[in-house]
Design brief:
By secondary structure, the protein is α+β, with helices and mostly antiparallel strands. The chain is 32% helix and 38% strand. It has one domain: START domain (Alpha-D-Glucose-1,6-Bisphosphate, Chain A, domain 4, 2-Layer Sandwich).
Length: 167
């Protein structure tokens, strides 16, 4: 079972806004080139997103289904990956001061992924999660950064006057 976490320097609400936006799924899920809702209201239980993976000239289309949703706190997904089978991916958000601790827990359920699951496969999942959490952090932290006022540099003359003992 691959469990990885990351402290995202944004409020849990900001992280949840990204996770709950079906149009942003391909922005944070590694390997996904595009996505679109196909059933239900994402991220409600039972809702589904169809996504595409590009492997050279080949395009694979699969589906991710929401199996459990506790808005703002937990999202459990079942990802279908063709011949690799299915996997359970649980994403938990925990407030951590003013930030959000995101915990991702993934393990195969059915198919080749479950049959071949070993230390090497687990290491690949960890690498994928590290990249995925990095993408999610960039999306959330960039969004938070837009809300902060931009500091203005001091005028050059004021800095020179202070260093010369003036004003």
């Amino acid at each position: 079972m691959a469990v990885r976490h990351r402290l995202i320097k944004a409020a849990p609400e900001v992280v949840w806004d990204v996770l709950s936006d079906p149009d942003r799924y391909a922005d944070w899920v590694v390997g996904t080139s595009s996505s679109r809702p196909v059933r239900g209201a994402w991220p409600r239980t039972g809702a589904a997103i169809r996504y595409q993976v590009h492997l050279g000239p080949a395009r694979l289309s699969n589906e991710t289904i929401v199996r459990f949703c506790d808005p703002g706190a937990r999202l459990e997904l079942e990802a279908h990956a063709g011949i690799l089978g299915t996997a359970r991916i649980a994403i938990e958000l925990r407030p951590w001061g003013e930030y959000c601790l995101v915990i991702v827990d993934e393990h195969p359920l059915q198919g080749a992924g479950g049959k071949w699951h070993n230390f090497a496969f687990e290491a690949l999942i960890h690498l994928r999660h590290r990249a995925m959490l990095g993408r999610l952090a960039r999306l959330c932290e960039d969004r938070t950064g837009d809300e902060r006022p931009t500091p203005r540099p001091a005028p050059v003359n004021a800095v020179a006057a202070e260093t010369e003992g003036g004003t």
